[in-house]
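Blinded run. Sample ID left blank on purpose so nobody reads anything into the name before looking at the predicted structure. Input follows.
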Amino acid sequence: MCQMPTEPDDIRTLTITGEPREAKRARAFARACLDEFGCSAGSIDDGELIISELATNAIAAAPGKQIDISIFPIKDLVAIYVYDPADGLPRRQPLTLASEKGRGLAIVRCYSHRHGTFRSASGGKVVWAMVRRFS
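Blinded prediction complete.
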């Protein structure tokens, strides 16, 4: 799934390094972008939770490497794309009540309108999700 934003100037990007402290920057960036694109408070909260999971997963997959985040509107949706240079695609893991990891994709699935992954032509992958502007 590759859709273009409503207007090319509407693409917002942030580059972070694969360091755990950078997840906070990603969340603040997502919140500001979603607010700028006119999302409801509920959609902003959902998008912030989604970017937290996607950025955390990217940081874990590519520690110390460059991670690119793009956020842009598509009609009544806002797309969140997170690129990291690791080749392995994320997989859902079996969960138990005691599991401390492995809930990220389940959370993304619950709070997004759509989500998915694709391999980048230059290597690595993009994990993406879309939220409705109004929840």
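Unblinding after everyone has recorded impressions. The two ends are 22 Å apart (CA to CA).
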